[in-house]
């Protein structure tokens, strides 16, 4: 049984509430990712921001990305998964919530990694991957 810990990306970058969308986009670019969690002072995820949120939820609406803060458009209370959870359960969470990426937390609810649909897809058969993509993309 493969666990989330075995497939997650480690050492995730966190964003801060006061970061502008330009700053967040640069952090995404530098990390090579499409989403970043926002963490509180104890490194607990309190939100998640995706590249799509920036483009569709802000720039397309005419907001200035140099003045708009992450806190202004962040999706609060992100769906998180424990590091010891089997990958099948993580996929169920992704499908149920129609998300492609999730923060991975330890026993103290602190951020320790990120897991993406692509991380899991690399470890599964084409048939399993197709079913997951279909469920998440509904």
From TrEMBL:
PROSITE patterns: CBS. InterPro entries: CBS_dom (IPR000644), CBS_dom_sf (IPR046342), Diverse_CBS-Domain (IPR051257). Keywords: CBS domain. Residues 8-66, 73-132 form the CBS domain. PANTHER family: CBS DOMAIN-CONTAINING PROTEIN, CBS DOMAIN-CONTAINING PROTEIN CBSX3, MITOCHONDRIAL. This is CBS domain protein.
